[in-house]
Amino acid sequence: MKQPETAADPSKAVDLTNCDREPIHLLGNVQAYGCLISTSADMMINHLSANCETMLGLCPQDVVGKRLLEFLPERTIHDLRTKLQLSSSSGASISRLFAYDVLQNGTLFDISVHASGPSFIFEFEPKTGTNERDDLALVQPLIARVNRKDTVADAVQEAATALQVLSGFDRVMVYRFAPDGSGEVIAERHVPGMEPFLGLRYPASDIPKQARALYTRSTLRLIADVDGQVSPLVPERNPNGDPLDLSLSVTRAVSPIHLEYLRNMGVGASMSVSILKDGALWGLFACHHQTPRYVDYERRTAIELFAQLFSYELERKIEAQIRAEERGSRDLHDRLMVRLSTGGDLVDSFEVIAEELAQIVACDGLAIFSEGRYTARGAAPTAEEFRRLARFLNMAPTGKVFSTDSLIANYPDAEVIADRVAGLLTVPISRTPRDYIVFFRREITRSVRWAGNPEKPVEVGPNGIRLTPRKSFEAWTETVRDTSAPWSESELRAAEALRISLIEIVLKLTDEANAERRSAAEKQELLIAELNHRVRNILNLIQGLVSQSKAGVATIEGYTKVLDGRIQSLARAHDQLTRLDWSPSPIRELIQVEVNAYLNGQKDRLMVTGDAPLLAPEAFSSMALVIHELVTNSAKYGALTDRSGKVGIDLHIADDGALLIEWRESGGPPVRAPSHRGFGSTIIERTVPFELNGTVATRYNLAGFEADIMIPSRYVSEGMIADQTDPADEEPETPDPQVAVTGTALILEDNIVIALEASDILTEIGASDVKLVSTVEEALATIADDQIAFAVLDINLGNHTSLPVAQDMRARNIPFVLATGYGDVESILAEYPQAPVVQKPFTSESLARKVAKALTTRG
Length: 859
Description:
Strand order of the largest sheet: 4-5-6-2-3-1-11
Number of strands: 37
Low-confidence stretches: 1-34, 39-66, 462-468, 509-513, 533-537, 724-735
Largest sheet: 7 strands, mixed
């Protein structure tokens, strides 16, 4: 086969329609980025692009009448057929192969395969980039950031940011379609210097109905160069006279009208990605680049996956928002039903229920028309005006809510009430006669910002009778009159729920409601009784502590100290229980808390060994007092009174599940048995047997006090031994609220997802702007050009470190925090200027804490 010198000239194309075999169609240089072959099931070839000639070493004359097997390796044919079989079995519309050696010569291509009528279409694109790149790995963390947003608006904005990160386009917009086909830019992310399009609306003619239908079928469309060479399909039709359907082909050209439209906007390359909801086109990611930009097939696949996952997240958030609105409407509806339960008709009860109705649907006026009687409040028609209006409302479908935000467009006589009413929502509450609850809204003069005048979207061009795109994209403002605020979907759903309730319930409580009320009253009585019981027990316990703590104490100060220690011990135990939702709690932590609270610097002289038991809440409070008395007695009379004394506590869960606690003191002063039993000794020796049915044995040995305690298994479960780091030795959990980042911050991080996380945190604590860079060179340039007030520097940046940046910032006296994912970085940090270090993965609290430390120790 000879190598073609130039691309196919359409004017000299060979007429292949009279060949004895099914003809080969040639598609010219498609955007100079790929080629296309269309094959029938038996011939395996119909269309071949001119660009493909060069890549495959073919010319049009060489492939006339040839089967695909005659110029592609047998292995390639086998793999393509296998891919067709797999896609057919799985029902996939498009199948893909990445980095495939088509000619078995080491040149790699990305391949797309899909069916088009009786044919299969193969698209080949030269492989770009390296195999080390993993675009799909970015999708999950980026979609996770979208998932964390609470509202649809925030999620959409985060998605625009994520897609810009994934695609690299200068501008990414989220474009939402309205029911009339027009659209609005509801989120945008662009590089500095570009004119913002956020909030602009575009008429339906900018993306016609047929284009929107294609966006639903083909979810990604790339125009890598608006001025790229475009070649025709030769021949245009097959022997049956049918054109090849290239709807799902990515390498196909687009309408010159659309290309001119993009040039008018100053766009060099564009990409659109469909956002679907319930299988319908909800909107688009519209991506623009100021210069040509090619996005290879593998990254486009990652972008498609991101868009699919975002569509699921969008649908989930919209449904969650609907559910929240429905819960609010349901609560208001329930209160309305309670108010109506006293009887009487709607008109008589109007003043009682009007406020509730206005909360269900926001309005400027409200009226009820029932059994020929009419009453209203706010901006509403008079009785006579409404009776004429009612004749118009009676023409609406029976049993359905009717709404309009421009009454005068539907009811010409509305002119007489235009000073009070522009829109209404009608809730029919009977069938015959037609009775209504009606919500009214006043006129709102609205300014709608269009991208150009929507009244002149197209004009006749110089090349004959054809449409040309709009030339101006400057914001054009239209003033809309005689309209009210539109009725939202949630308000319409609330109105429908109200209609059903009023018709079916008709102002009376059901038996189920009465039963629920009785059940709620019984539960409330039980709760009050339980609360009363608990309060009495607490008061009795405090009364006992007050009474018994005075034994053996000679002064008011001593008595106060003893009583305060016991009450604080109970309080700390209660705090620990409530922090763990009143679930089994670790006794090791109880001991540690008691030691920290009472012994201050002597805590290292107490050693806890053995298992990590958890105590049930009913045993935990009791043991808090026991542990408190053991610790305080040791500090006052036992081993902890002497600097050489120590206390060992061994915790062991026996085979039968019981907890055995061995308390051993040593190294202290000689021990003697007390001459009388104080309240502290009573707590130690009698609490566990009396309250928990356990056992306690105490021994006052000369060498040191000992106690053996057994707690029954029903109060014990096994846990994990946690880090015993003393919380008092750690940095505070929250930074100084007076310390915050001011001005512009810099983040040097080679992972974009982590950089975005850090950016969010710095913004939350005061940064007015955050610069994201991934290399030392970018960081040094940013520091030189901008007034950087603070920085977070990743220590390890692939094959190098951020040391030069840290040294430069220290020379400029700019505070910074170092971030690392390695546990042992001592050898690296030895070269760095001294700065706080935050370990990855960091949280808002941990990073903010290090930021506060860096700012308070700067200079």
